[in-house]
């Protein structure tokens, strides 16, 4: 498994807006980057789980600018299209009633634009 040296910045350009999501390096479980393909595995715990779900909801086929640096020192800064997404909200860590999901796993597959 490969990590990153700095947070990953995802920028989604919509018609009139640009939305950003900055994922700290501690939440990046794996990243696999080849010339035309980028796979990112994110696991977020705590109150920020909804931010990941909300940001990537219904975004397959959309274009993102992604920026980070892999552990190997290779800089990634380019336009990618989200080709597939897998979201899995884990069970809460406690048995509180009406609690928020304690964890979310996201596997994101991108193709260079």
Which short descriptors sum up this protein?
single chain; 113 residues; mainly beta; seven-stranded antiparallel beta sheet; 1 helix; 7 strands; 7% helix; globular
N- to C-terminal distance? 25 Å
The amount of beta strand, in percent, is over 45%
Oligomer: single chain
Share in helix: under 10%
Largest sheet: 7 strands, antiparallel
Q: Which outline best applies?
A: globular
Characterization of the model:
The radius of gyration is 14 Å and the shape is globular. The model has no long low-confidence stretch (mean pLDDT 88). It has a seven-stranded antiparallel beta sheet with strand order 2-1-5-6-7-4-3, covered by helices on one side. The protein has one helix at 49-56, and strands at 8-13, 18-23, 28-34, 37-45, 63-69, 75-90, 103-112. A hairpin with a 4-residue loop joins β1 and β2 (18-23). It is mainly β.
In short:
By secondary structure, this protein is mainly β. It contains 1 helix and 7 strands; from the N terminus they run ββββαβββ. Strand 3 and strand 4 (37-45) form a beta hairpin.
How would you summarize the topology of this molecule?
Elements: E1 8-13, E2 18-23, E3 28-34, E4 37-45, H1 49-56, E5 63-69, E6 75-90, E7 103-112
Antiparallel strand pairs: 1-2, 1-5, 3-4, 4-7, 5-6, 6-7
């Amino acid at each position: 498994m490969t990590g990153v040296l700095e947070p990953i910045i995802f920028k989604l350009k919509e018609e009139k807006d640009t939305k950003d999501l900055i994922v700290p390096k501690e939440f990046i479980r794996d990243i696999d980057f080849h010339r035309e393909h980028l796979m990112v595995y994110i696991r977020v715990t705590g109150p920020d789980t909804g931010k990941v779900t909300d940001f990537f909801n219904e975004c397959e086929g959309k274009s993102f600018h992604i920026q980070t640096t892999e552990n190997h020192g290779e800089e990634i800064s380019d336009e990618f299209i989200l080709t597939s997404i897998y979201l899995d909200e884990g069970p809460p860590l406690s048995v509180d009633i009406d609690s928020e999901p304690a964890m979310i796993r996201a596997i994101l597959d991108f193709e260079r634009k």
